[in-house]
Sequence to fold (368 residues):
Amino acid sequence: MKLKVGIALVVVLLFGAFFGAGIAQVVSTGWFLSLSCATDPRLANPVTSRSFCVEMAVPPKIRYWDGTAWAQMGYEDTTGTAVILDSLNEIASVAVAGQRTAVARIPASVSLSGTLKPVISADNGATFIETDHAGAAAAVFVDGAGARTTSLVFPIGVPTNPVTLKIETWLPATHIGVKVTAYTSGSASTTVRAMAFDANRSVATTTVSGGVELKTPAGDSAMDETFNAAKVTVENVITAGGQSAAAGVTAYPSCTGQAFLNMTTATTTELVPLTASELIRLCHVHFIANGTTTVKFVNGTGSNCASTQHDVSPIYNLTAQVGMSAGNGTGTVMDNTQAGGAGGVGEALCVTNSQAVNVQVFVRYAKY
Fold:
């Protein structure tokens, strides 16, 4: 009982010491909790850059001591200068400093009659673009329901609240803004504020061959070209060993088949059966002998490749406990075409053992 009371007293004292207002400084390193890191008297000098403060705001913020003040880790929201949009090509923007989302705020009662489009700059605001090199939108407006659009026409009625336009881009940018691309009359005072990237944005899911899912930002036209190219690449690599791969796509066999032999006589034995119009491709080969013999792979038709038989490998000279292993299951290490690339399609793959000694053979293969 005394032990429990003692522990409770220590906890109370520590809690009081940390959250009390009478302590003028803290130890030089560590993590601290506060309602306001900057104004908390307990977190005054001296502290070092190895000190961190978790500010219990909504959302919480992590700050570090930079030598003179508690700086926020990560990107802080920044606000651009208010601009009166009252002429063609007028732009209101903000330096994003790594953020990729911004909000343009327009007062409730404006007289602007014209069209606004989201724009970005990659050269510190010297020039702004509406589309990328492929003609896709460089940025989009996003409403509260997640719908995306590349322009907004004013007037939009007489809203009772200020108009808030969320702007998103997936391109590298130094500035994000809004631009008057068509102007009739009037004006609108506009301020653009940069914010941290929205990690919770919705995504669209597309299932490709093999059950693989590709995800891309929902409704993001700027990503369509890249996404479609990725979809083609994945489908070609996955399906049927990639034999339908488009130009520029490196296709690897999907070696889902396996076969093995335990040979004990001097004979030729079928390892992988033929399939009409398909070529056998090996992604992994392993064999080992229990005595002196030679081994080779052959192709052919009929029982154990007896008809139209041709060598498809060199002759391997083996002794007891000697063999070979090749391939890790990715890519082709061998197929059943003979020297020069002839034959093999629609033929079986067999193994010839020249002596009556034990030879074990194992392969992973694909056929297409």
Remarks:
- Residues 2-19 form the longest helix (18 residues).
